Amino acid sequence: xxxxxxxxxxxxxxxxxxxxxxxxxxxxxxxxxxxxxxxxxxxxxxxxxxxxxxxxxxxxxxxxxxxxxxxxxxxxxxxxxxxxxxxxxxxxxxxxxxxxxxxxxxxxxxxxxxxxxxxxxxxxxxxxxxxxxxxxxxxxxxxxxxxxxxxxxxxxxxxxxxxxxxxxxxxxxxxxxxxxxxxxxxxxxxxxxxxxxxxxxxxxxxx
Length: 207
Hints:
Elements: E1 9-14, H1 21-30, E2 34-37, H2 38-44, H3 51-60, H4 73-82, H5 84-107, E3 113-117, E4 132-137, H6 140-151, H7 155-164, H8 168-174, E5 177-180, H9 185-199
Parallel strand pairs: 1-3, 1-4, 2-3, 4-5
């Protein structure tokens, strides 16, 4: 069992859509840091065979399932976006399960610090479970440009996602560290390495 002193501290990593947080997280992982993705945890708890998916199907009916038994996310999204009460029911079911999944994954970390990557780190309150927050930041025009290239989506859709995520000011207000990703991947990786060496000097996430 880890003693408290050797237990990895947790870095929360976030950033708006198209900021480069996934690329940053991948590079931290390549440096040997244990990385847990909140989105992956959220998907995993509703996999076929998991209790949450059975409850969701019982509550909403088979219309939210696809032929192969997977969750039909777009059907479920349509229901919860038009009915706040149903959204609250779903969140009450899933949030504790996702929290538990994240905690179990983070507990397996062997690296000096571990990273929780979450696009909604601030909005969901997940940042309260971390000792330090790193925000990957990029000018909004660049975020839109990158997302359009990556997702082949419309500018309106990207703008809607940007509007739904925490405002840039709000994210930066919670940040202990900010990595401005406004050039290329090479510069991003160099900055990640610089932060990594700094983080290795910290105890409990603090200098």
